[in-house]
Amino acid sequence: MVLIKVDYKEKDADRLKLKNGFLCREVAGQWVVVPLGERVVEFNGIMTLSESGALLWRNMDSEVDEEDLVKLVLSEYIIDEDTAREDVREFVVSLKENGLIE
User: Fold this and answer.
1) What confidence score (pLDDT) does residue 6 get?
2) pTM above the 0.85 mark?
3) How far apart are alpha carbons 97 and 91 in whole angstroms?
4) CB-based contacts of 87: which residues, under 8 Å, 6+ apart?
5) Which of 27, 43, 87, 91 sits in a 20 to 30 Å window from 51, CA-based?
């Protein structure tokens, strides 16, 4: 018999959730993210998103993992799974680099 120990703290680390204090809106046909309140000090400027980036953003207000986001992209767009996974990974890395994920 093989026993597998699951470290729940490590598993929880894979969960993604956007920090509060950012607003995502479509303005003149372009999706933008702007900081609100105290977040202006941390993130000075705006972030523009593609249509698929806006879809991902709008679905990250509660905890998700990358696999959830890949499934979301696959359900909305005609795209192969490898490309969807690569695009989601790139988006998540960008959010992390900009300090937008809790």
Assistant:
1) 40
2) no
3) 10
4) 52, 73, 79
5) 43
Question: What is the residue-wise DSSP string for 9-58?
Answer: HHHHHT-B-BPSSEEEEEETTEEEEEE-TTHHHHS-S-EEE-HHHHHHHH
* Domains with residue ranges and CATH for the chain: 14-97 (1.10.10)
With beta carbons less than 8 A apart as the criterion, state whether 39 and 22 touch: yes
Integer CA distances (angstroms), 31 to 7, 14, 93, 94, 102, in order: 38, 26, 19, 16, 22
The whole-number pLDDT of residue 61 equals 87
Residue 12: the pLDDT is 47
**Full DSSP string of 67-101:** HHHHHHHHHHS---HHHHHHHHHHHHHHHHHTT-B
Structure token digits, residue 67: 């696999």
- Here the tokens at position 47 are 């972030």
